[in-house]
Amino acid sequence: EAAEKSGYEHFMLKEIHEQPKVIKDTINSVLTDENISFESVGLSDEDMKNIQQVYIVACGSAYHVGMVAQYVIEELTSLSVRVELASEFRYRQMKLAKNSLAIIISQSGETADSLAALRLCKDKGVRTLGIVNVVGSSIAREADNVFYTLAGPEISVATTKAYSCQLVAAYLLAMQFAKARGEISDERFAQLVEEINTIPEKIEKILEDKERLQWFASKVVNIKDAFFIGRGIDYAVGMEGSLKLKEISYIHSEAYAAGELKHGPISLIEDGTVVFSVVTQSALYEKTISNMVEVKSRGAKLFGLTTYGNYAMEDVADFTVYTPRIDNLFAASLSVVPLQLLSYYVSVGKGYDVDKPRNLAKSVTVE
Ligand code: G6P
């Protein structure tokens, strides 16, 4: 097992470090030079033109990818998008639109609820696309089309590299939808191609600075509760950060859309409550900062996660982490990495079994 960890103490840390490579592999599987081709997936431009409604169905972290995907697809195309938890979707009486595509996101391709949702869509005559990591898995076999993420085997129960590959798969899909439907200019498309290719090297940069997060983790190792706030894509990343933290460090943690704070959770803020704030979306920057000020005035300790250049963050946050600048649409790919590292170091600091957290399974094949 030590050999399989290639010198890393845990699979999770190894897999966090594999992200630049596997993201690159996933991008390169459909992007050549300036063009994206979904031929291997089996989705033609004509298909993409005719689709009007997209349903994204998944569980756990894959659902969080779906949330990011929703923002990105909505921003780039005229498609209507809904993201659903597979365990809810399968028991609802949802009226599925004609000309729709159901995207099932699953690392293992075996999650019982996601598989059931896929079957339900097929029964209702809705075309299905799996974004799946495991070749030949049930969802990959049964979906009409499959976009394979190339994360390789993921051992740690808490997903990192598979999540990151799912994100880029979603971006590429959104970009090609926009292109096929004539909803994006050539310049903007070329710009996004350039930007998506910078994700791996920018993650390398973040990984170089991991000791800072390790230090910060040592300061929060004994907290009992944590909150994550953000808006838009930052909210989706906050949900993933919060899930990671609770999964492996057993700290009670909740993610909230920053604008919802005043509708309840602000009553839980006391002196010293730690609030992680993800603030990368320029159009929402001021709004989230004002929410940070609100919780700070009630005693919160603030962790601010933003991009280089937003140095005013230091006037509000007690601890700030910067990620390299990138197109707002792709920010999740960078901001999730410090949150992965943070959860990892908190779990290690508490002496827990990072790769095999209690009560959780890598793949949930029962209901
Ligand atoms: C389990 C795993 C999560 C994963 C979820 C969905 O809860 O611990 O990491 O996000 O299942 O799994 P899937 O294989 O469908 O992506």
Structure notes:
It is a single chain. With 367 residues, this protein is an alpha/beta fold. It is built from 14 helices and twelve strands. The protein has helices at 11-28, 45-50, 60-76, 86-89, 112-123, 138-142, 161-180, 186-196, 199-208, 210-220, 233-249, 285-296, 313-316, 331-349; strands spanning 31-32, 35-36, 53-58, 80-85, 100-106, 127-132, 145-148, 225-230, 252-257, 274-279, 301-307, 319-323. The strands form three sheets. A five-stranded parallel beta sheet has the order 4-3-5-6-7, sandwiched between helices. Strands 9-8-10-11-12 form a five-stranded parallel beta sheet, sandwiched between helices. Strand 10, helix 12 (285-296) and strand 11 (301-307) form a beta-alpha-beta unit. Helix 1 runs antiparallel to helix 9 and helix 9 runs parallel beside helix 14 (331-349). The chain starts with 10 loop residues before the first helix and ends in an 18-residue tail after the last helix. The model has no long low-confidence stretch (mean pLDDT 96). Bound molecules: 6-O-phosphono-alpha-D-glucopyranose (G6P). 6-O-phosphono-alpha-D-glucopyranose binds at residues 59-62, 106-108, 111, 114, 157, 159, 360, 362-364.
Concise account of the structure shown:
It is an enzyme of class 2 (transferase). The chain has 367 residues and is an alpha/beta fold.
